């Protein structure tokens, strides 16, 4: 999360890497509606939870819920924030819920059914690891153990892209992931990978970076690394990674950072990446109050 403000993402699967939360732990095969809701904990009706993403062919989609709709009530529970909505949207019971929302054409109420999280995981290409986290379907046991350790005990280091896994200049072309520059002897690695060129090519979060376009990235300054991992114009990247002793080479076309943001339902606002559904009327909910001097 951004250290300047609190924002919680209640997701059907997970909060997009580098977005506004961490992957949710799997606590059994829960039933969900198929929508992702974002909001500020403890907020009142002036800053209601807002529907961020509605996955296709899910109960929420079939009920006509749209991204940007404001959540008013769930089964009669009104005035709830995003945290209070969590146990009402992720349940052990497949029973449908009556959800009241406010959309483009005013307030409305719909009966929304449920779908198993395991069905959605399968559709999205994920599986549940031994630690309860979500991993690519082709992740090995060794990889899952390594990533679990990284998540629980992250090595000290820096990140190349400064704005939630994005370059400050959204006109740059890049692979769609952050780069963790960890201190020796820890290898430089792929971090915060989102829906983008690298992920679609098969790159995983936590992959150790061997070379980029034939260049060893180790030892370069942060400015040099940003130039190495991005381009001012359309370009192709060849990325060599070491995944637990197995060397893999991925070649893919870079994408404009702004387009990666759109694919991940985000946009930049005042130097931050925020959900793209946040309209001007609710931007104040996502801006930190000034800190006293």
- How many β strands by DSSP? 21
CATH superfamily of the largest domain: PDZ domain
Radius of gyration: 20 Å
**Strand pairing plus helix content: what structural class?**
alpha+beta
In CATH, the architecture of the largest domain is: Roll
Q: Return the domain count.
A: 2
The percentage helix is 10-25%
Instruction: Output the CATH topology of the largest domain.
Output: Pdz3 Domain
Q: What is the average of the pLDDT values?
A: 87
Shape: globular
Low-confidence stretches: 1-7, 11-26, 289-293
- What's the number of helices? 7
Largest sheet: 4 strands, antiparallel
What is the succession of H and E elements?
A: EEEEHEEHEEEHEEHEEEEHEHEEEHEE
Termini distance?
Answer: 23 Å
Q: What topology, given as strand order, has the largest sheet?
A: 6-5-7-8
SSE topology:
Blueprint: E1 8-10, E2 31-32, E3 35-39, E4 50-54, H1 59-62, E5 70-74, E6 77-78, H2 82-89, E7 97-103, E8 106-112, E9 115-116, H3 117-124, E10 126-128, E11 134-136, H4 141-152, E12 157-159, E13 173-174, E14 178-182, E15 189-191, H5 197-201, E16 208-212, H6 222-228, E17 236-243, E18 246-253, E19 255-256, H7 257-263, E20 266-269, E21 272-275
Antiparallel strand pairs: 1-3, 2-9, 3-4, 5-6, 5-7, 7-8, 10-11, 12-14, 13-19, 14-15, 16-17, 17-18, 20-21
């Amino acid at each position: 999360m951004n250290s300047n403000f609190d924002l919680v993402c209640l997701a059907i699967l997970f909060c997009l890497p580098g977005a506004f939360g961490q992957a949710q732990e799997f606590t059994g095969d829960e039933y969900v509606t198929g929508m992702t809701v974002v909001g500020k904990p403890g907020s009142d009706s002036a800053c209601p939870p807002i529907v961020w993403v509605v996955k296709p062919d899910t109960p929420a989609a079939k009920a006509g819920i749209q991204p940007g709709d404001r959540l008013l009530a769930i089964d009669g529970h009104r005035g709830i924030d995003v945290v209070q909505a969590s146990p009402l949207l992720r349940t052990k019971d497949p029973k449908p819920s009556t959800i009241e929302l406010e959309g483009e054409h005013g307030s409305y109420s719909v009966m929304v059914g449920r779908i198993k999280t395991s069905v959605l995981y399968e559709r999205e290409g994920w599986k549940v690891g031994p630690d309860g986290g979500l991993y690519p379907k082709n992740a090995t046991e060794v990889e899952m153990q390594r990533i679990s350790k990284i998540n629980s005990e992250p090595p000290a280091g820096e990140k190349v892209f400064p704005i939630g896994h994005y370059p400050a200049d959204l006109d740059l072309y890049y692979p769609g992931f952050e780069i963790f520059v960890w201190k020796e002897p820890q290898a430089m690695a792929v971090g915060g990978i989102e829906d983008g060129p690298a992920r679609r090519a098969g790159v995983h979060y936590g992959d150790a970076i061997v070379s980029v376009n034939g260049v060893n990235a180790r030892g370069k300054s942060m400015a040099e690394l940003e130039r190495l991992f991005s381009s001012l114009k359309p370009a192709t990247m060849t990325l060599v990674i070491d995944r637990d002793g197995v060397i893999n080479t991925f070649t893919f076309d870079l994408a404009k950072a702004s387009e990666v943001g759109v694919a991940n339902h985000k946009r930049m606002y005042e130097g931050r990446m925020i959900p793209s559904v946040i309209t001007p009327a609710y931007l104040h909910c996502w801006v930190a109050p000034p800190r006293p001097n």
